[in-house]
Inverse folding.
């Protein structure tokens, strides 16, 4: 079984909204924090939002107030609601599962146990 399966990316105008979804296996979801990284070509993946196993959330300052991470425990699914999108939000977004993501947004991609396949978000000006 593929650990994480993402959906929901696409093309949107500046100011618009998108919601990303990530379905995990029940075991992966129950034993890890879940998070969303994004990556711009030529740059490393950066953790922008995370949710702990107890439901605590953290958001990077660059997206705080615009993006919201949430989860549905019954569906083993994590979401990223993205509002007021800006062209600089254009990136490939990756769902991730790892211990401790919500405690430390400086967690690098090297610490991630499981990845989604990535979904492209493009925001036009």
């Amino acid at each position: 079984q593929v650990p994480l399966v993402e959906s929901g990316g696409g093309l949107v105008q500046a100011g618009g909204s998108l919601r990303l979804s990530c379905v995990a296996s029940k075991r992966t979801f129950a034993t890890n924090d879940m998070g969303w990284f994004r990556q711009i070509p030529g740059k490393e993946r950066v953790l922008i939002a995370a949710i702990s196993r107890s439901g605590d959330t953290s958001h990077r300052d660059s997206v705080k107030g615009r993006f919201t991470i949430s989860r549905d425990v019954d569906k083993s699914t994590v979401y990223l609601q993205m509002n007021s999108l800006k062209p600089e939000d254009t990136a490939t977004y990756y769902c991730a599962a790892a211990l401790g993501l919500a405690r430390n947004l400086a967690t690098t991609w090297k610490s991630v146990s499981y990845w989604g396949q990535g979904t492209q978000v493009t925001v036009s000006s």
The longest strand covers residues 91-98. The radius of gyration is 13 Å. The chain has a mean pLDDT of 95.
